[in-house]
Task: inverse folding
């Protein structure tokens, strides 16, 4: 719908043909002819050398009138579809610019060719050829270099006329905007662009350079069909504008409601957080107590692990955590027998076994002196009294713990 409304606005503000349904009254073979149509230069800049660099319109869509040999007028339709064809516009790029259309020795109009370019060429069209989307005109940039052509523009000769060949589809019909036509132009191929005093395409395609007064765009005459069409278009546009205005108001209200909902949700979130904090206060105290118990348990576990490591003669573990100490103990005990893919659970289980073995050996070492009295060394004089078990135990304990 938005695309339709955009097209309707374009028609209202810049009437130009659109590719709609035409009323075809018959069909005959196409004929290729030469044509000379007009356009406009919008602006120009004078270089330090005195050249003119200008931008303007070289062609427009619509119905163009041509006088035939018998004096009759033939109305030829130029549609936007044909005028804007890429293969047609490409033939306009880099084409020569002339002052008036070239004429032969007998006064007949001729095209520009390599053998006469030095005589007729006064400049050239730039490579960039564009389509003015608002009105369908073909826009070009051109350089005018020859002195007489620059002087002609300064004196007010400011319209453009394109010279080209075209195939004529001799099928008459009725265009919804431009009315009746006798033929349709197809396959336009450009030869040159001429600077002329007055052009077939109307003053909308007149050149404006330096202080030239701006000329109003081409406005075709209206017919009852066109007036009805414009009335329907205006009504449709007004309805669309009213609908769009209502949609914008509804969207604005929805946005305001959404913003209000966000604020309510934000306040509700703060309230829920405060309520939860009050409810969780006792639990937080319990968590703090649990945290202290956890720290004490960790300290005891680490101290125990360090004790086992020291009994095994391991050192350099002062900065290690509990899992690292346990892993060091297990690796020292198992050596090459330890699994290469050992997990944390594996280390915990293996450590418990190693710890039990280390503690058992420590107890055995502590009580090994209680089994028999001390035997003096050979040659050593022994007192008549035997060493008591208590003294033997204490001596063995001191020996063990003094290591």
Result:
């Amino acid at each position: 719908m938005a695309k339709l409304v955009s097209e309707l606005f374009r028609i209202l503000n810049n009437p130009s043909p659109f590719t709609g349904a035409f009323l075809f009254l018959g069909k005959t073979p196409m004929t290729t002819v030469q044509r000379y149509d007009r356009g406009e230069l919008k602006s120009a800049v004078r270089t330090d050398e005195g050249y003119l660099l200008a931008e303007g319109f070289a062609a427009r869509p619509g119905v163009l009138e041509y006088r035939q040999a018998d004096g009759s007028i033939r109305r030829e339709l130029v549609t936007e579809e044909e005028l804007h064809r890429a293969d047609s516009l490409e033939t306009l790029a880099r084409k020569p610019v002339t002052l008036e259309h070239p004429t032969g020795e007998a006064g007949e109009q001729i095209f520009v060719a390599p053998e006469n370019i030095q005589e007729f060429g006064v400049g050239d069209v730039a490579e960039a050829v564009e389509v003015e989307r608002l009105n369908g005109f073909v826009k070009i940039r051109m350089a005018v270099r020859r002195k007489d052509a620059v002087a002609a523009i300064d004196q007010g000769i400011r319209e453009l006329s394109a010279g080209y060949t075209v195939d004529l589809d001799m099928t008459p019909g009725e265009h919804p905007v431009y009315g009746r036509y006798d033929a349709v132009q197809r396959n336009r191929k450009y030869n040159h662009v001429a600077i002329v005093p007055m052009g077939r395409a109307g003053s909308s395609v007149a050149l404006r350079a330096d202080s030239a007064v701006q000329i109003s765009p081409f406005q075709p005459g209206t017919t009852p069909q066109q007036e009805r069409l414009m009335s329907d278009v205006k009504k449709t546009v007004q309805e669309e504008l009213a609908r769009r205005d209502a949609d914008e108001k509804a969207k604005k209200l929805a946005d305001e409601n959404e913003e209000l909902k966000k604020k309510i949700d934000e306040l509700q979130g703060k309230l829920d957080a405060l309520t939860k904090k009050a409810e969780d206060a006792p639990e937080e105290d319990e968590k703090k107590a649990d945290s202290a118990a956890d720290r004490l348990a960790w300290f005891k576990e680490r101290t125990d692990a360090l004790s086992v490591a020291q009994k095994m003669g391991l050192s350099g573990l002062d900065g290690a955590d509990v899992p690292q100490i346990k892993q060091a103990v297990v690796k020292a005990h198992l050596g090459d027998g330890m699994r290469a893919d050992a997990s944390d659970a594996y280390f915990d289980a293996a450590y418990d076994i190693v710890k039990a073995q280390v503690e058992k050996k420590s107890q055995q070492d502590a009580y090994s002196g209680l089994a028999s009295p001390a035997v003096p060394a050979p040659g050593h004089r022994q007192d008549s009294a035997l060493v008591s078990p208590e003294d033997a135990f204490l001596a063995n304990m001191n020996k063990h713990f003094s290591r």
Observations:
- The chain is about 40% helix and 20% strand.
- The first strand starts at residue 31 and ends at 46.
- Residues 8-28, 199-221 have pLDDT under 50 and may be disordered.
